[in-house]
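Module 6 notes. Inverse folding takes a fixed backbone as the condition and produces residue identities as the prediction. Think of it as a translation problem where the source language is geometry and the target language is the twenty amino acids. Below is one complete input and output pair. Work through it position by position during the lab.
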């Protein structure tokens, strides 16, 4: 499948009072990797909009394995897991030095016709064609 990876570094503003990255900041790391993956496919948010579809996230799952701490450098890997009926992306957040898995996550997005607001039961050709044309 198609993957993309981004590098991040935990900043002071990411921390909670216990001096680890606050759980609510993890989706921001996932979003950076998701955008890199969508860029690789050629179907990021501007292309989604111009194709006439909205792609809301309808499910987000996060498994916190180990805490991320201030200054820790991480790699966020996004992998396209499913695209024909919905857009499902799997994520791994890894320590940049050791490669240790710190977090596992998954998002699911569905296509909605922008004009009507109708949910699509299949992904539109605009996405499917780009995925099939992208290089893994």
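Target side of the pair, the amino acids:
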């Amino acid at each position: 499948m198609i993957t993309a990876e981004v590098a991040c570094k935990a900043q002071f503003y990411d921390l909670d009072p216990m001096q680890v990255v606050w759980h609510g900041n993890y989706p921001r790391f996932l979003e950076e990797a998701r955008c890199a993956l969508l860029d690789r496919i050629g179907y990021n948010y501007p292309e989604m909009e111009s194709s006439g579809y909205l792609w809301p996230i309808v499910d987000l799952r996060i498994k916190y394995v180990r805490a991320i701490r201030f200054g820790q450098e991480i790699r966020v890997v996004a992998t396209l897991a499913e695209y024909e009926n919905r857009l499902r992306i799997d994520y791994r957040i890894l320590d940049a030095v050791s490669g240790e898995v710190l977090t596992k996550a998954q998002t699911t997005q569905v296509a909605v016709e922008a004009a009507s607001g109708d949910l699509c039961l299949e992904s539109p050709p605009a996405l499917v064609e780009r995925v099939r044309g992208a290089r893994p």
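Reference fact for the lab report: The mean pLDDT is 96.
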